[in-house]
Amino acid sequence: MVKLEFLLAFITILLCSSSSFAGTIPSDHRYSPRSQVPTSIGNYVFPTDVTIPANLTVPKGNCFKFSLHVSGYIWYQCTNKTWEFSEGRVLFFNHEDVSQYPDSAVASTYNPGSSVFASAGIRSIIPKYDSSSLIATTTINYQPPDPNDFPWGLEETHDNTGDGAFKDITYIIRLNTKNGIPPPNSLCGTQYKEGYIYSSILSAQNLFYHPGP
């Protein structure tokens, strides 16, 4: 299990991705026709199946705007008997059903080249309809109900640009994570050889907040 202090260092950085998303979504998802391309970002109905821990409550003066589902991969490398983060590729979807990948994706992570600790960018990939982006920095990590899942968290945003859904986002809550972590360190260097790259599927639900009562 990766140490908590190490997770804080890359909890958001791991979401930084390259411009290519081949392999980001599990291969059993079907390709859909271009007619399915979304024209907006976000599901503006607050999900009924979430419980937000008190530690992840956003500050007063902010309210829910929309939610997005996250799906992608994280790669860890076995280095000196410890799993170290190697790379992450993540896409965002308006709904949990991502079977119409890749056309149903509305946003992606990107490397903003920021010097701010534990920061990553999120930007629209439907520029015809939305040109907005932001940089998010993790401020709080929270142990999920299943310790075998990636930590939940609270992220504060800055450097919002463009016009669209992300323009006025102030906070993001990461919930309902599934998988996304490497095997125990005891298997690094034993079952998995030094330098081995382990691929872990990650899914999550992100709640986006903006100024409001």
Q: Looking across the biggest beta sheet, what order are the strands in?
A: 1-2-3-4-5-6-7-8
Q: What structural class results from the helix and strand content? A: mainly beta
Distance between the termini: 40 Å
Main sheet characteristics: 8 strands, antiparallel, barrel
Kindly give the count of domains: 1
Which range does the strand content fall in? 35-45%
The proportion of residues forming helix, as a percent range, comes to under 10%
Alpha-carbon Rg, integer: 17 Å
The general outline is globular
Show unreliable segments. Answer: 1-34
Q: What does the average pLDDT come to?
A: 84
- Spell out the helices and strands N to C: HEEEEEEEE
Counted beta strands: 8
Could you characterize the architecture of this molecule?
With 213 residues, the chain is mainly β. It has one domain. It has one helix and eight strands. It has an eight-stranded antiparallel barrel with strand order 1-2-3-4-5-6-7-8. A hairpin with a 2-residue loop joins strand 1 and strand 2. The longest helix is centred in the first third of the chain and has 7 residues. The radius of gyration is 17 Å and the shape is globular. This is 1843_t:CDS:1.
List keywords for this structure.
disordered N terminus; 1 helix; mainly beta; eight-stranded antiparallel beta barrel; 3% helix; 213 residues; 40% strand
Secondary structure layout:
Elements (H helix, E strand, L loop, with lengths): L3 H7 L51 E18 L2 E12 L11 E6 L8 E6 L8 E10 L9 E10 L9 E9 L17 E15 L2
Antiparallel strand pairs: 1-2, 1-8, 2-3, 3-4, 4-5, 5-6, 6-7, 7-8
